[in-house]
Amino acid sequence: MATPRFLITSTAVALALQSFSFLNAPIQTPSASNYLGLAAPALAAQTVYRPPLRPRPLIRTSGTGSRGCYQKNQPIQLSLLVPERHVGQTVSARPSFFWYLENAKVAKFTLVEPGVPKPLLEKTLQVSGAGIMQVELPENAPELAVGKEYRWSVTVLCNPNRPSEVASYTQSFIERVASTPELIKQLGNAKSDLERARIYAQSGLWYDTLSALSTASEKDPIARSEMLSLLDQVGLSNVTKQARKNEQAANLR
After folding, report:
1. Residue 13: which residues within 8 A CB-CB, separation 6 or more?
2. Buried/exposed 6-35: b ≥16 CB within 10 Å, e otherwise
3. Is 2.60.40.420 the CATH classification of the domain at 17-41+48-235?
4. Rg of the Cα atoms in the chain
5. pLDDT category of residue 16 using cuts at 50, 70 and 90
6. Where do the structural domains in the chain lie, given as residue ranges?
7. Rounded to the nearest 5°, which phi and psi values hold at 174?
8. pLDDT tens digits, residue range 44-81?
9. I need a surface site. Which of 19, 90, 141, 217 has the fewest CB within 10 A?
10. How far is CA 97 from each of CA 49, 137, 146, 203, rounded to the nearest angstrom?
11. What pLDDT digit, counting tens, does each position of 195-231 carry?
């Protein structure tokens, strides 16, 4: 199968959903999808993530529910692409959220402001195959406020019509922080998404770094390599191990 590189935009949901083909995932057909090749040569990584000076500790909650509702009787693999020990930050009012999912059919993304009953965004997604998925906060959803921390989660459902049948669940947090004149200046001088990713990484802005690298990865093999390195830096070696394993399998075909 040829490596797909396309983006289908759904104006009905105003939602960006991506799955990276470096995991050899078959073509999915949710309302909006993009497949980015992350199988890249081993190159020296220059995107070095430096956590915030005063990072908030991450309280992670995850669990497994009903069994027997995933594909081919294989255990569900669900990993949010976030730092392992602290809350990731962003300067974006409408950031993107990434996670890795394998052996699932239906997933629900939820973003909430603590203390507010109604979610800022809740979206059920049909899933086919394994891959990294991305959801961007759409224009019709409220912006994240500076200085606030939000909780986001991914729930793997057995049946979209039966939300109580949960196969797997995990959550994390995101904090929007104010930009600085120096950061704005540096970003203004950047000539590519890869350069912007490196600037964000040095500033401790996890979500912006990952988003910029995912955009750069569409065409730049260096960015594809640096994205894998970035995930390794924060303890997501389970995801990168699978990525490299699939790459080797593809090369043997």
Report:
1. 31, 32, 123, 138
2. eeeeeeeeebbbbbbbbbbbeebebbbbbb
3. no
4. 17
5. very low
6. 17-41+48-235
7. -140, 140
8. 448 999 999 887 887 666 666 555 565 666 778 899 99
9. 141
10. 17, 8, 17, 18
11. 999 999 999 999 999 999 999 988 898 998 899 999 9
pLDDT band of residue 128 (cuts 50, 70, 90) is confident
Q: How far is CA 115 from CA 60, 86, 112, 142, 210, in A?
A: 18, 21, 9, 15, 28
Total count of residues recorded for the chain: 253
Distance CA 121, CA 166 (A): 19
Asked whether the beta carbons of 18 and 214 are under 8 A apart, the reply is yes
| Cross-strand bridge partners of residue 77 | 102
Which H/E stretch holds residue 130?
none
Closest CA to 111 of 132, 87, 142, 147: 142
DSSP 66-123: --S-SGGGPPPEEEE-S-SSB-EEE--SS-EEEEEEES-SEEEEEEE-TT-SS-SEEE
Model pTM score: 0.79
Amino acid in the structure at residue 25: A
In this structure, what token pair is assigned to residue 194?
């890869």
Grouping H, G, I as helix, E, B as strand and the rest as coil, residue 251 is helix
Determine the residue type at 172: S
Q: What share of the chain is helix, strand, coil (3-state, %, to 5)?
A: 25, 25, 50
